[in-house]
Write a structure and sequence with these properties.
38% of the residues lie in helices and 17% in strands. The chain is of the alpha+beta class. It has 2 domains: 4-201, no CATH class; 227-417, no CATH class. Helix 1 crosses helix 4 and helix 11 crosses helix 13 (318-328). The longest helix has 28 residues, at 97-124. The relative contact order is 0.09.
Length: 419
């Protein structure tokens, strides 16, 4: 069998592959299948690794391997150092040198192939490329020692990019799979159809025979799925320290995310948009619980249990963004007669500061305004205040604590100078 380091694509990194892998969130896990399918587009896991520092080191090691093409031997050396540094024990593969070699190969190869495939997905969907090469062709790597017969049977299938086949059969399609996809011309597509390798010859939708468990998805096709969907339910089952570390990791990602202001600007200007924008997680449920314990929520007859305030999502919907713009978009000329403070119109960049405003608030107070959902259900409203660079931010948020919708939803936001 060809040496692992010499097989494409692992020693030929490219920008789209690197960008995909860098954006992944470190997610603690116990088993390799703690998350499956599309969730891998958002989360980086190594089965059994739960410490934040451990996951960061492993993520960085693989990121270096992708960026510099250093190869599996360099990764194995760094893996050994990371394990020793973090005191990680009890992991599958530590029993012997042979098992360690197997485990490091799985970690390395799986991340390299999936990130490569995701980068290729980004490339293949480039509009200019699609104009010139509008069809995709499945390619089996004939150099593997033990080829999978069904993977071989898909070799040469040539289909439109939106064909159902790619949603489940876009490679890799299993552990160690080295199949790939190449773009081709319309004439190549017509030849493939004539040779029995066109759409009529693809497996029917839902037929995933020949695909290993957890691989029946297209890496890179789901990078826009909600990060909240991936992690919120899992945080409930984690130990408190790990959950808080994960919350901080998500929030740091949000603060560094340049796409949030762009998304806010788009929703503000699109009057027909009806979307909810995820901005992070609340990190301190105890502080929030203390603030709302005297709210009318506890005085209603039908509320017999405390609300679940753990790991509430921070969200803002498009209607609120437009409300803030209509109510405070011209605040730059407003001066409070008593305090002489100048009110500042919120900018799209200010929405990305909400995790900081909520989780490091200088003050949290219960609003006198509480939202009544029907007659007997009350939703508490809380004000978060935070001074940042001489400016006081106030975020008024509704506390939603249902089973399916657990979040702090922004009602309005205003900003004033503190001098």
């Amino acid at each position: 069998m060809a040496d692992l380091e010499q097989l494409p694509p692992w020693n030929k990194p490219f920008a789209q592959q690197l960008a995909f892998f860098k954006k992944k969130l470190n997610l603690p896990s116990e088993r390799w299948d703690d998350i499956t399918r599309q969730a891998h587009d958002k989360a980086f896991i190594v089965a059994g690794a739960q410490g934040a520092d451990l996951l960061t080191d492993l993520h960085n090691a693989l990121n270096t391997a992708i960026e510099k093409g250093t190869g599996i031997q360099a990764f194995r050396k760094e893996f050994k150092q990371i394990v020793q540094k973090n005191g990680w024990t009890g992991w599958t593969g530590e029993e012997s040198a042979a098992k360690t070699a197997w485990r490091t190969k799985v970690i390395y190869q799986t991340n390299m192939t999936s990130s490569y495939a995701a980068g290729r997905w980004k490339q293949l969907n480039n509009p200019e490329l699609l104009k010139a090469l509008p069809y995709w062709q499945y390619k089996h790597n004939d150099s593997v020692t033990f080829p999978r017969p069904l993977h071989q049977s898909w070799n040469g299938l040539t289909l439109p990019p939106d064909h159902h086949f790619w949603k489940e059969h876009y490679p890799p399609n299993g552990w160690g799979c080295q199949c790939r996809v190449v773009p081709v011309t319309k004439s190549t597509f017509m030849k493939a159809v004539a040779n029995g390798r066109g759409p009529a010859d693809a497996p029917p939708p839902g037929n995933t025979e020949g695909i290993d468990e957890g691989f029946n998805y297209a890496p890179g096709a789901n990078v826009d799925m909600s990060l909240a969907q991936v992690v919120q339910d899992k945080m409930i089952t984690y130990p408190r320290a790990i959950s808080r570390a994960l919350s901080k990791s998500v929030n740091n990602r949000v603060l560094a995310n340049e796409s949030i202001p762009n998304a806010v600007e788009e929703l503000k200007n699109n009057l027909e948009a009806n979307e909810t924008l995820f901005l992070g997680f609340a990190e301190d449920p105890d502080r929030l619980r203390e603030v709302i314990k005297e709210s009318d929520y506890y005085l209603t007859k039908n509320q017999t249990t405390e609300p679940n305030l753990n790991h509430l999502m921070l969200v803002v919907n498009s209607d609120t963004i437009r409300h803030v713009e209509n109510s405070h978009g011209q605040d730059g000329n407003n001066v409070d007669d008593k305090t002489k403070r100048v009110q500042i119109p919120p900018a799209p960049e200010d929405y990305a500061k909400l995790p900081l405003i909520v989780n490091e608030a200088d003050a949290i107070v219960r609003s006198a305004q509480e939202i009544r959902k029907e007659r007997s259900t009350v939703t508490p409203v809380v004000k978060f205040q935070k001074e940042i660079d001489g400016v006081m931010y106030t975020a008024v948020m509704e506390v939603l604590h249902g089973k399916k919708n657990r979040s702090l939803s922004l009602i309005t936001m205003f900003i004033r100078t503190v001098w």
